[in-house]
Amino acid sequence: MQIGVALPQMARDYGPGTTVEWSRAIDEGPFSSVSAGERVTFSNPEMVASLAAAAAVTRRVRIMANVWVLPAHPAAMVAQQVGTLDQLAPGRLSLGVGVGGREHDYQALGAPLDARHARLDTKVAELRQLLAGEPPFPGADPVGPALTGAIPEILAAAMGPKSMARAARWADGVTGFTVTGRRAEMESTNQRADEAWAAADRPTPRKVTGCFVALGIDDPQATLRDYVCRYLAFAGDEIAAAMADEVTISSPDAVARLLDDAEGAGCDELILVPATADRRCLDAMEALVSRRGGA
């Protein structure tokens, strides 16, 4: 199983130098990928710019958008951004795509929230056509820059049976998330993915999942809980607090157990999502993964 690290974009202490410092350290460590997610009405830096910076200062790890909320954007603009990222990281790009869950982000971008699942299907098809070099409309030039190789893998942020069934028609795999880090939860998601892809007569999907962690810092459990409460506040204080009560991956033993459980559940890659930008957290994760045998 591969082990990636997300940039701690959503953490309170993310600063001007965090993107470059963490990206370089992740590339030098035992990790498989560096990722960033999309959120608009929050304190985080923008996803594509962050991934471009990460791509420019790394040479080995994959650069992963996790996740790109496609229904909120014009497909042509996304195609140009993907082409640009591919120039910076040839053959190292992975695209996680989904519908998101934050109405305020859609509103801020001037995009409708309704029918977003159907629009995701349409956007992915359109994006693949544009990345293959087809013009956006008759008489137009293709959207550039052209890819340096094949279209990057596209993973669906699908969790439930219905979204899995839709995604199985067009995705190369799934990128999920577990708040609790429990093996049973990851196994259930991975089983649904395998069943959906088999029903669609598609090859076995690549299965990626992520989990919030805090490690190597003062009072990691309090930091982890605060992070989750703040990050999920858009869902309401009651839901955010309930979810924060479920997070426990804040010790070396807990992280080691998470890695073992993710591998046992059939994950191809686990992405550690830090609850802090404190470099001690990344150093602690690196030491633990190195002892485990790397990614």
Number of helices: 11
Structural class: alpha/beta
Count of beta strands: 8
Taking all Cα atoms into account, the compactness measure Rg is 18 Å
Separation, N- and C-terminal Cα atoms: 7 Å
CATH superfamily, by name, is Luciferase-like domain
Q: Multimeric state of these chains?
A: single chain
The main sheet comes to: 8 strands, parallel, barrel
Shape: globular
Mean pLDDT: 96
Name of the top-level CATH class: Alpha Beta
What is the CATH architecture descriptor?
Alpha-Beta Barrel
CATH topology: TIM Barrel
Strand content is: 15-25%
Q: Level of helix content? A: 40-55%
Secondary-structure element string:
EHEHEHEHHEHEHEHHHEH
Question: Which regions have little confidence, pLDDT < 50, spanning 5+ residues?
Answer: none
Total domain count: 1
Question: Which sequence of strands runs across the widest sheet?
Answer: 1-2-3-4-5-6-7-8
